[in-house]
Design goal:
Residues about 350-355 and about 365-385 have low confidence and may be disordered. The chain has helices spanning about 45-55, 65-70, 75, 80-85, 150, 180-195, 215-225, 230-235, 240-245, 265, 310-320, 335-345, 360-370, 375-385; strands at about 15, 30, 60, 85-90, 95-100, 105-115, 125-130, 135-140, 160-165, 200-205, 225-230, 245-250, 255-260, 270-275, 290-295, 300-305, 325-330. With about 375 residues, it is of the alpha/beta class. Helix 6 (about 180-195) runs parallel beside helix 7 (about 215-225) and helix 13 (about 360-370) packs antiparallel against helix 14 (about 375-385). Strands 12-11-13-10-14-16-15 form a seven-stranded mixed β-sheet.
Length: about 375
């Protein structure tokens, strides 16, 4: 699921999050929630690098972990040195006042930014923006288990707008197992296989480069083998020594492979194939399960592993923050803005919805019109519907 957000925060002109292209190139203050490429649109472009070179007033913020990943894995992501060097670190679970300036370097307004851990992948964070136009929450991609939204220190109990990860905002994705449960099931499958087939390789298919670190740690602990990964993945973990030391670039050193299908896996007469995924478990006959075995191949499994919140977890966050408006930043397959928003208002307490004041309405309509002319008209539609 790709982020469809164009980056512009309607309430705060000159601020962009997770998009560094199109209309967002006119911003001066940028935020990156995590290092997945669908949230880095334009970050690797020459246009954005030139924007930073020529715009001395521009600032880019991220978590320390995300900054380190981009620094250490520069060749993986293709982020220019000027961008990495300009990344400023925001401390997690803390608030910081940032002055948002215009293109002439004059201060337009001050913004208090609180950075919260999002539970999606290493370095992933949410941003809470407090300023003259109200409190705004940008979730980025997030995974909070049942009960965590209410107990997450710093997560506000009431916001004006939430820019929401709605990747699994549909009924079939109502519940996913915790990742700890998924990893336990995965390790059990692998352990049983290796006991019967000690020389046969295991291939763990991971969709993204980041987010499976706990899988590697538990596999190494359970099987006492390092995990073979590609050089591209290995380079990202230089600053995470506890993880870096359990990975190997030598395909002959381990039977556990989370690489790009190396020769050991491809040439093996028999290998265990495991795919970590979530969408396969949103169908009627698969919902609620943790593992799926291929009906024809006994050595092929799928394990329900989600880095995004399930629908019930999304609903719980929405109930906690009580937004007046919801702006979806991702869309499930076959879904549109209205379908998502028709689901979400059902979980928003009635007292959180009120008519906008006239100044709020004028500002909102002005920003909506600006967004509607941008590269992603769906976001404008989302805002109008919200």
């Amino acid at each position: 699921m790709m982020s469809s957000f164009n980056g512009l925060i309607l309430e705060y002109p000159l601020v962009s999050v997770d998009n560094f292209s199109g209309k967002s190139l006119q911003s001066t203050t940028y935020f990156l929630s995590h290092a997945h490429t669908d949230h880095m649109q334009g970050l690797t472009s020459k246009a954005f690098a030139n924007r930073l070179k020529n715009g001395h007033n521009c600032r880019v913020f991220s978590s320390e972990c995300t900054r380190n990943i981009l620094r250490d894995g520069g060749d993986v992501f293709g982020v220019a040195d000027v961008v990495v060097k300009r990344l400023e670190v925001l401390p997690c679970d803390a608030a910081e006042v940032i002055e948002v300036v215009n293109h002439d370097g004059e201060v337009e307004y001050s913004l208090t930014v609180t950075t919260l851990q999002a539970g999606h992948c290493p370095g992933s964070v949410m941003f809470v923006f407090d300023g003259p136009n109200g409190r705004v929450l940008y979730t980025g991609d997030f995974r909070l288990y049942p009960g965590q939204s209410a107990n997450l220190v710093g997560l506000p109990a009431c916001v004006k707008t939430v820019y929401l990860d709605t990747t699994f905002c549909f009924a079939g994705a109502n519940k996913f197992p915790r990742r700890e449960e998924a990893i336990k099931s995965l390790c059990a499958i692998v352990k049983q296989w290796t006991m019967k087939n000690p020389a046969a390789p295991v291939f763990v298919n991971t969709k993204t480069r980041l987010g499976y670190e706990a899988v590697f740690v538990e596999l190494e602990r359970t099987l006492r083998q390092k995990i073979h990964v590609s050089e591209r993945r290995h380079s990202m973990y230089k600053s995470m020594l506890e993880l870096y030391d359990i990975l190997t670039l030598d395909e002959a050193e381990s039977n556990i492979h989370a690489c790009d299908k190396c020769s050991v896996v491809l040439q093996a007469e028999s290998a265990l194939w495991i795919k970590l995924c979530a969408f396969s478990f949103t169908l009627k006959h698969t919902n609620g399960r943790t593992t799926l075995k291929h009906p024809k191949f006994s050595h092929s499994y799928r394990v329900c592993f989600s880095m995004h919140s399930s629908f019930s977890e999304i609903a719980e966050l929405v109930q906690h923050v009580k937004p007046r408006r919801i702006v979806p930043i991702a869309f499930p397959p076959g879904s549109d803005v209205l379908q998502i928003l028709n689901l979400l208002p059902k979980v928003v307490p009635k007292e959180s919805v009120r008519e906008r004041t006239r100044p709020e309405q004028r500002l909102f309509e002005k920003n909506v019109n600006r967004i509607a002319a941008s590269e992603d008209p769906c976001i404008g539609a989302a805002s109008c519907a919200a």
